[in-house]
Amino acid sequence: MKSFATFFPQARRAPAPMACSFDTCTIRMTVDAASITTLRQLAMRVCGEALEFMRIAICAGGTRIQVWLCVRLPFATLLSETIMRQLPGAEFRTNPKQPEAAA
């Protein structure tokens, strides 16, 4: 049995930029239940150590799954674009509007 690590060697992962602060971004989406493994593999391949966490929750009916991907900010756009290309059925959700800071 092959290890998961042999499918995605460290050399293929994008190096996470080293910084003193780790600004993160949460990507919210809904995907088909059948494509959750593909999504997890894509996130690990693209982000590597820059993937902070991945949370999943089954939607009503069990055919769709809600996903929260917390990644370091420099990888958010790259991961979103990769998911859009590889999983066209993924529906991205916008974050609730944040109150604007008083000037």
Architecture blueprint of SSEs:
Layout: H1 4-7, E1 24-32, H2 36-47, E2 51-58, E3 64-72, H3 73-86, E4 91-93
Antiparallel strand pairs: 1-3, 1-4, 2-3
Any overview of this molecule?
This protein is an alpha+beta fold and 103 residues long. The protein has a domain at 35-93. The protein contains three helices and four strands; from the N terminus they run αβαββαβ. Strands 2-3-1-4 form a four-stranded antiparallel sheet. A hairpin with a 5-residue loop joins strand 2 and strand 3 (64-72).
Give a quick summary of the entry.
With 103 residues, the chain is of the alpha+beta class.
Q: Give the total of beta strands.
A: 4
Strand content: 25-35%
Q: Could you describe the largest sheet, including whether it forms a barrel?
A: 4 strands, antiparallel
What would the average pLDDT be, to the nearest integer?
82
Count of discrete alpha- or pi-helical segments spanning 4 or more residues: 3
Radius of gyration from the CA trace? 15 Å
Trace the largest sheet across and list its strands. 2-3-1-4
